[in-house]
Amino acid sequence: MSHLNYETRLPLGQATIDHFMGLPAHPTKCQATYVWIDGTGEHLRAKTRTINTKPQYLSEYPIWNYDGSSTGQADGLNSDRYLRPVAVFPDPFLGGLNVLVMCDTLDHEMKPTATNHRQMCAELMKKVSDQQPWFGMEQEYLIVDRDEHPLGWPKHGYPAPQGKYYCGIGADRAFGREVVETHYRACLHAGITIFGSNAEVTPGQWEFQIGTCLGIEMGDQLWMARYILHRVAEQFGVCVSLDPKPRVTMGDWNGAGCHTNFSTIDMRRPDGLETIIAAMEGLKKTHSEAMKVYDPNGGHDNLRRLTGRHETSQADQFSWGIANRACSVRIPRQVADEGRGYLEDRRPSSNCDPYLVTAMIVKSVLIN
Ligand code: ADP
Ligand code: MN
Ligand code: MN
Ligand code: MN
Ligand code: MN
């Protein structure tokens, strides 16, 4: 695998790394990397501990703590916050018995912190479990260097206009495929339900899809897939931007979303299309409420992206259509043809919290 940006790597010899990482693993101990959402509601943090015997079940992973005053989740005088394990994945970076542990965060009274929307989401998913809510999320992102300059873009001026990059092949149109391929394999190793990946419309922009996932698993898996992506990029000396419209792309370039596909058991039945169309009423009713939680900044991030141009709808209007990519919600052509399937909510921003988005969809369609 080539280095995308070699000068940003530490000058350690690969042979040295290989020596230590290749030493026989400890027979029983494992390294558990606890991953959590910080006070931005957008960025992840992680720290690692040894567990003497690799647990068999989630419930055997201990609750842990961290300094919430350093993550925007507490003040210094009362800084301890708790990490509660909610999902465990084989660690594709360390391999062996080692694991990645997705956690939600609790305050000193064991109540969810301000950016912990998982507990609320999990309760909601339990309530509607008889409807078997399935989700699939399409995570778009831009690969950038540490100065936030998109990969493959000239340092001065702009690349050739968009048109040739979407699903593009070749060194003049696909930038950072090493990151994409490595991430894909790493997700498979971790047991994440990765559906696919493709190069996107803007140069340096890519997408992976997670799904289908049942209920709360959607959020757990997408957050962990994001963690893996940031870590893979780190190893190549590049970064991943989930900003829906990075400043450098403000001209005639597509922004980044996180389309959220959704179905219930009724929508998947032979005459499911009726249920899918009926769901539009509920989605329309909650439009302004939804727009506030479809990005981590109260809807402000999405205002830059949902302009009605570049395959988006307008932020202030709800619309739906069949095979229409300028709508808030799209019914894919194939779903309309088959008369059953799922709908695609195109409004969530690339930096959305999937716990908030999936909860909002369930609330709109199944609770109201
Ligand atoms: P697009 O045509 O919008 O680019 P993609 O191929 O990128 O679509 O993604 C399709 C997504 O739809 C995947 O995440 C997949 O898991 C999801 N999906 C497929 N069938 C269903 C279903 N019945 N319910 C919910 N999600 C689904
Ligand atoms: Mn310390
Ligand atoms: Mn897609
Ligand atoms: Mn896309
Ligand atoms: Mn889509």
TrEMBL record:
GO terms for molecular function: ATP binding; glutamine synthetase activity. InterPro entries: Gln_synt_N, Gln_synt_N_sf, Gln_synth/guanido_kin_cat_dom, Gln_synth_cat_dom, Gln_synth_N_conserv_site, Glutamine_Synthetase. GO terms for biological process: glutamine biosynthetic process. Residues 117-368 form the GS catalytic domain. The keyword Ligase applies. Belongs to the glutamine synthetase family. PANTHER family: GLUTAMINE SYNTHETASE. This is glutamine synthetase. It comes from Caenorhabditis elegans.
